[in-house]
Amino acid sequence: MLILIAGFALVAVSSNQIARQFQKIHLPLISGLMITGVLAGPYVLNLIPEIAKVQLSFISETALAYIAFAAGSELYLNEMRSKLRSIKIQSFAQTAITFLASGGLVFFLAEMIPFMKELSLGDKLSVSLLTGVIFVTPSPASVIAIVNELRAKGPFTQVVLGVTIVKDFVVVVMFAIILAVAKTLAHGDSFELTSLLVIVIELIVSFVGGFLVGKGLEAFLKLRIKHLVKTIFILALGYLVYFLSHHILVWSEELTGHGLYLEPLLICLVGSFYVANYSNYRPEFLKILHEVGTPVYVAFFTLTGASMDLPVLAEVWGIALLFFVIRLLATTVGALAGNMLAGDPHRFLKVVWMPYIAQAGVALGLATVIANQFPGWGEDFAVLIIAIIVINQLVGPPFVRWAIDLVGENKSRADVPRFDGVMDALIFGYESQSLALSRQLMEKGWKVEMITLSDQKDVEVPDGIKLHFVTQIDKKLFEGIDAKKFDAIVTLLSDEENYRICEIVYEEIGTKQMVVRLNERVNLDKFVHLGVKVIDPSTAMVSLLDHFVRSPQATSLLLGMEQGQDTRDIVIRNPDLHGLPLRSLRLPPEVIILSMRRAGQMIISHGYTRLRVGDIVTMVGSNSSLDEIELKFGN
Question: Which residues contact 120 (CB under 8 A, 6 or more apart)?
Answer without folding.
Answer: none
